[in-house]
Amino acid sequence: MTLIHPAHPAQRAKLILWGLGLLALASILFACLIGSVSLSAPELFYALMDLVQGKSSTLAATLLELRLGRALSGFVTGGTLALAGVMMQALLRNPLADPYVLGISGGASVGALATILFFGAAWMVDLAAFAGAIGVAILLFALAYRDFRGSGSSEGSAPLLLLTGVIVAAGCGAIVTLMLSVAPDSRLRGMVFWMIGDLSNTQSRYLPWLILLAVGAFAIRRARAINVAAMHADNASTLGINIGVLRKSLFFCAALLTASAVSGAGSIGFVGLIIPHACRFALGFDHRLLIPAATLAGGSFLVLADALARSIVSPQQLPVGVITAIIGVPVFLLQLHQLRRR
User: Fold this and answer.
1) For residue 2, how many other CB atoms are within 10 A of its CB?
2) Inter-residue contact 218 to 250 (CB < 8 Å)
3) How far does CA 304 lie from the centroid of its chain?
4) Residue 44: partners with Cβ closer than 8 Å, 6 or more residues away
5) Between the chain's N and C termini, which has fewer beta carbons within 10 Å?
């Protein structure tokens, strides 16, 4: 038997991605099996055959259809958040950056909660959240336009962009607090659940998958340039990289990913922060591997977290954002401890 030596990075990367792909598949199967009514492996197989044939008359087939759709929604949301975290950390050159650091999720919260409060139409919530996130992204770009031109030092432009995002996020937070304080009790629970992050009302849609695949393909194509920008941003132009165009691309791609994830599932924390860190600690800093690995790991993590959220106190379901926070806080503290030791 021939062992693959670590000196062959291409073979190592393929093994890692195959392993993460199998982990993603296993997490989705696990999510389909467990719940308030568990399914055995034979029941899962026959239920899957029924769905393939277009039948959903049995209880097992109905449960599988519901759980599979939710698991797929969780996977695309987790992968989207993890990929957005990787791009935000590369853009800001800050390991503490996550998809929500620039206040884009705050814009989504304003749009979604305003729709729940004033209209109460569930079909409008996702659209309003997406519009709010994109609106804040455009506002940030207009306020910090000079930081994207690449004319100045990256060490000065990244903190200014971050500060602008923090201020915009604070304004959105004030509006959200005002709406929560005046909301009637009949709508307050739904607003709070949306803010925490919940997959119970997500629907299987093609648009989040298209956004994730398109942005992921673009990021992998530009991975070499991202490597240079993340480590040698001030000298990137001398290496043939247009740093201004790259910054704009990273910002808009991360904003689009964040808007896609938040509009469908609410503000689910820690996925876009701890998953890129964990992959970077385990696999290194090469974005050619880090981008697909973080996407697969983030999707698997959120699927497993959601399976726990609907199983721990079943038949009652917890918001998945609570589970990701409970897991994410100690994991992130451990990562910080390891970073200090290094």
Assistant:
1) 4
2) no
3) 14
4) 29, 32, 33, 60, 64
5) N
Tens of pLDDT along 146-163?
666 554 444 546 777 788
**Tokens 């705050």 sit at which residue?**
106
CA distances from 136 to 33, 133, 165 (A): 40, 5, 9
Per-residue model confidence (pLDDT) at position 2:
41
Angle between helices 243-265 and 122-143 (to 10 degrees): 160
Token pair for residue 319? Answer: 């918001």
User: Would residue 174 count as lying in a domain?
Assistant: yes
257: domain CATH number is: 1.10.3470.10
Give the number of other Cβ atoms within 10 Å of residue 195's Cβ: 18
Contact 268, 261 (CB under 8 A): yes
Residue 32 has pLDDT above 80, yes or no: yes
What total number of domains does the chain contain?
Answer: 1
Tracing tokens 């029924």 back to the chain, one arrives at 50
Q: Alpha helix (H) ranges present in the chain?
A: 9-33, 41-52, 59-92, 104-118, 122-143, 154-182, 185-196, 207-221, 223-232, 243-265, 271-283, 287-309, 320-341
Q: Which tens digit of pLDDT belongs to each residue from 7-19?
A: 477 888 899 999 9
CA atoms within 13 A on the CB side of 334: 9
Q: What does the DSSP 8-state code read for residue 239?
A: G
Q: For residue 224, tell me if it sits in a domain.
A: yes
Nearest to 104 by CA among 254, 298, 302, 246: 254
Buried b or exposed e, range 78-116, using 16+ CB within 10 angstroms: bbbbbbbbbbbbbbbbeeebbbbbbbbbbbbbbbbbbbb
Q: Cα separation of 301 and 162, whole Å?
A: 27
Predicted local distance difference test score (pLDDT) of residue 214: 96
Task: Over range 113-135, report the average pLDDT.
Answer: 84
- Give the separation between CA 19 and CA 13, rounded to whole angstroms: 10
